[in-house]
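Input:
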Amino acid sequence: MYEKDGEKYYVVDGHVHIWDGRASNHKNVHGKQFIDCFYDYHKNLSPEEVVWDYDTYTYYGAERFMKDLFGEGYVDHAIFQATLLSDFYHNGFGQTEEAFGLTRQHPDKLTYNHAYDPRHGEAGLAQLRRDAERFGLKGVKLYTAEWHGDSRGYKLDEPWSRRYLEECIELGIRNIHVHKGPTIRPLDRDAFDVADIDKVATDYLDLNFVVEHVGLPRLEDFCWIATQESNVYGGLAVAMPFIHTRPRYFAQIIGELLYWIGEDKILFGSDYALWTPKWLVEKFVDFQIPADMPEYAPITTDQKKKILGLNAAALYDLDVPRQLRLPTQAGDADAEVAAGAGAP
Amino acid sequence: MTRMAVSVEAEVLAALSTVLDPELDEPVTELGFVRSVAIDDEGVEVHLRLPTSFCAPNFAYLMVADAYDALAAVPGAGRVRVLLDDHHDSDKINAGTAAGLGYVGTFGVEAEDSLDELRRTFQRKAHLAAMERCCRSVLASGAWTVEELPLLELFDLPEGRLKSALMRRREAIGLPNHSHARVMVDHDGTPVARSDVALRLRLATTTRVSIEGNAHFCRGLLATRYAGVDPAGSAPVVTNTRSHP
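Output:
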């Protein structure tokens, strides 16, 4: 919970990791390139006083994780998003067992989302059933751009992917987080293309599709699709830290999102440990659209409350303390086409 | 009459400045992607670099191939070499470009199609953003209203950077550039209907915001990535050891 100027905010960090990017876990040079790339993101977009040293960044473990999120970061609940990258790391990049172990210790604070890959066919479906039971999955995190054998990625509307999505409905997995953002290794295919979200969102209204990184670097494609689908959400991971380095650009991103998809479908995420939630939460609560950008309406306190936690709480059925709720429930997914289209 | 003497360095840099990042729609020279230019008696060798080692290989390939083509057109350049540094596919891209294999030839089974369609997608977005900038400028001047924009012609745009940028992008996607051509058109030249104009302008704004934001991000990441080795900034290191002028 974060409190400022008498207002209380329930905070859900919708995108966190415990990773191991140490040299001992690198399968090949790409393992090093990947964590180095993350470290550059971290250094480039963090305030100087919260930049970590490289060794801490490659592996920080559960204790530091708990301290940064729940001790100092105002987070009430956090959701692990799996990042396996088995081609780059011996024991995966995201640490499944360590993360899941923590969710067992703190079920009120943590949710674990695992991953699947529809290119694993029947065997993968069986694995998904086992994972759903073991982890109690409410959500999954998918990398449509990940390489697998001869395949350079897949589309959500391909036949096998549809079978997996239908299985998710059967298993009670409602939240499908899809990485549409900074690249893993797309090649011939434009892996940022969000058109596949459009097709499956229409066909599977029982599922919620959370587009992580709000489609950056293709914000416009995401907005256009999300505005037409009632079950498409935007995760702010990676977009958030611009609030420090490029506040005017952040104002444009959040202004566009509020216009196109509305205040009920935007979810906060730090992408920890890319960034720590403490400063992001503080700056977001203090943030306002600059006065010389009249094309965007000012952000209200209620909108900030929804984005910081109430929207995600609705998607994950989290029990928000009564004094932290809004009079009208957030996360109502019946918003109109182009939420801001009626505004001048 | 003798030909105006232009240094080979200037010609090489001018050629490189025509190479755009296909997504950011800005010259690689201005983005700091040109690390070094070495000119000697044999030819020209250029090293390119990118903000991360995980920049999409298709975009990386487009820039290397475009730089190669631009330099090959410089008279007297000699043997042209373009090398991409510090990318996870550097070796493959460098070898493929040097051998003139093309995209599919370079990546073999990993590439299913050529990159023309991807390039066109970004040329269309670049056009949309350029069109939006021009429309916003005439709206800001107070001479036009949003409802009137479907009637706006190239003739009505004030001469300057915004208009010439729009003209270049129209040419790239095959739109006519005569003075009475409409400004608010689809990428296939269809005029935007009056009933759609507000929404279409709004979507074009989002496209422009997206492209500009990505450019901020890439510049920042590049500066972070090379802060330790190249604190001088984004200007390429140019050396000329040619014994003849």
